[in-house]
UniProtKB/TrEMBL annotation:
<feature type="binding site">
    <location>
        <position position="44"/>
    </location>
    <ligand>
        <name>substrate</name>
    </ligand>
</feature>
<dbReference type="GO" id="GO:0004589">
    <property type="term" value="F:dihydroorotate dehydrogenase (NAD+) activity"/>
</dbReference>
<feature type="binding site">
    <location>
        <position position="215"/>
    </location>
    <ligand>
        <name>FMN</name>
    </ligand>
</feature>
<comment type="pathway">
    <text>Pyrimidine metabolism; UMP biosynthesis via de novo pathway; orotate from (S)-dihydroorotate (NAD(+) route): step 1/1.</text>
</comment>
<feature type="binding site">
    <location>
        <begin position="241"/>
        <end position="242"/>
    </location>
    <ligand>
        <name>FMN</name>
    </ligand>
</feature>
<feature type="binding site">
    <location>
        <position position="189"/>
    </location>
    <ligand>
        <name>FMN</name>
    </ligand>
</feature>
<dbReference type="InterPro" id="IPR005720">
    <property type="entry name" value="Dihydroorotate_DH_cat"/>
</dbReference>
<dbReference type="InterPro" id="IPR001295">
    <property type="entry name" value="Dihydroorotate_DH_CS"/>
</dbReference>
<dbReference type="Pfam" id="PF01180">
    <property type="entry name" value="DHO_dh"/>
</dbReference>
<dbReference type="GO" id="GO:0005737">
    <property type="term" value="C:cytoplasm"/>
</dbReference>
<feature type="binding site">
    <location>
        <position position="20"/>
    </location>
    <ligand>
        <name>FMN</name>
    </ligand>
</feature>
<dbReference type="GO" id="GO:0044205">
    <property type="term" value="P:'de novo' UMP biosynthetic process"/>
</dbReference>
<comment type="function">
    <text>Catalyzes the conversion of dihydroorotate to orotate with NAD(+) as electron acceptor.</text>
</comment>
<feature type="binding site">
    <location>
        <begin position="263"/>
        <end position="264"/>
    </location>
    <ligand>
        <name>FMN</name>
    </ligand>
</feature>
<dbReference type="GO" id="GO:0006207">
    <property type="term" value="P:'de novo' pyrimidine nucleobase biosynthetic process"/>
</dbReference>
<keyword id="KW-0285">Flavoprotein</keyword>
<feature type="binding site">
    <location>
        <position position="163"/>
    </location>
    <ligand>
        <name>FMN</name>
    </ligand>
</feature>
Length: 302
């Protein structure tokens, strides 16, 4: 039985990855998870310099998930290269670095710094709803998506996966724009913009007022967007959004994802990624699927 997948020319031992921002650079989870058994670790977003993030409170629980407005707090590329890449290199897993910035030149600075690093893939976050400049400002305008993708591709030494926002009218427009700019792959979905109000204090639950919604409630939206995107482009897709177990991961693969990322579920069950790897294998045995590629986009009308 083959669980290996090819993601933009990089072979993953299986399709299960972690979602950026929910798994650090793997170190906090290494006592719960055998990192060697993950297809890839996707790191927390990293910028050219350290970012403090937004004021607190910056997370809140909501029905079927959570809101966050972390604001991409990160240690900056210097410390990341010194500390996080050597940590991850100890494991037999692929390394995907999530990159964030306020301007195109900030993204490019990070991409340039990573050029000679042992990093397998870059995931470019143009879809964070919680930063005022950069982030989502890029991800909601097809022209900007195409332009920033092209500029990053001109510098990147690793394959480039553009991470798309669900906070748009037509996800396929953004997907096609990234493909036109030369993206090697796409990942989706980032969080959906939401709001929670504390009725007793009559205040916003998050200091940022709005936050990004993630968790099981967003899963059907994510599956629909992955399906639509897979119909619209010819580059591989990393599917994410509310994957809580192997069934959810398989659903995403059937919708058209080559690999999946697991985010919020790690917070309630730090071993969930291992259970998902095992659960996908059980499903393949049960239905005599010899190669996981047979499942990618295999959904059909009843
Ligand atoms: C606390 C938190 C922090 C996040 N930080 C990042 C980030 O730094 N970069 C990024 O591209 N996405 C970030 N995300 C979005 C996730 O990677 C993922 O796209 C989203 O949460 C949907 O997946 P999930 O429902 O499995 O969590 C973050 C999500 C959460 C909950």
């Amino acid at each position: 039985m083959n669980m290996k997948v090819d993601l933009c020319g990089v072979t993953l031992n299986n399709p299960v990855m972690t979602a950026s921002g929910t798994f650090g650079a793997g170190e906090e989870y290494s006592e719960f998870v055998d990192l060697n058994r993950l297809g890839a670790v996707v790191t927390k977003g990293v910028a050219n310099v350290p970012w403090e993030g937004n004021p607190t409170p910056r997370v809140a629980e909501v029905y079927g998930g959570m809101l966050n407005a972390i604001g991409l707090q990160n240690p900056g590329i210097d410390l990341f290269i010194e500390r996080d890449i050597p940590f991850l290199k100890k494991y037999d897993t692929r390394i995907v670095v999530n990159v964030c910035g306020h301007t195109t030149s900030e993204y490019i600075e990070v991409v340039d710094r990573l050029a000679d690093q042992p990093v397998d893939l870059l995931e470019i976050n143009i879809s964070c709803p919680n930063v005022k400049e950069g982030g989502i400002a890029f991800g909601q305008n097809p022209k900007m998506v195409e332009d920033i993708t092209r500029e990053i591709k001109a510098h990147a030494k690793q394959p480039v996966i553009m991470k798309l926002s669900p906070n748009v009218t037509d996800i396929t427009e953004m997907a096609r724009a990234a493909e036109a700019g030369g993206a090697d792959g796409l990942s989706l979905i980032n969080t959906l913009t939401g709001m929670k109000i504390d009725i007793h204090r009559r205040t916003f639950a998050l200091a940022n007022r709005t936050g990004g919604m993630s968790g099981p409630a967003v899963h059907p939206v994510a599956v629909r967007m992955v399906y639509q995107t897979a119909q619209a482009v010819n580059i591989p897709i990393v599917g994410m959004g509310g994957i809580m177990n192997a069934d959810d991961a398989i659903e995403m693969i059937l919708a058209g994802a080559t690999a999946v990322s697991v985010g919020t579920a790690n917070f309630t069950n730090p071993q969930v990624t291992m259970e998902i790897v095992d659960g996908i294998r059980d499903y393949m045995e049960r239905y005599q699927v010899k190669d996981i590629k047979e499942l990618v986009g295999a959904v059909h009308d009843r």
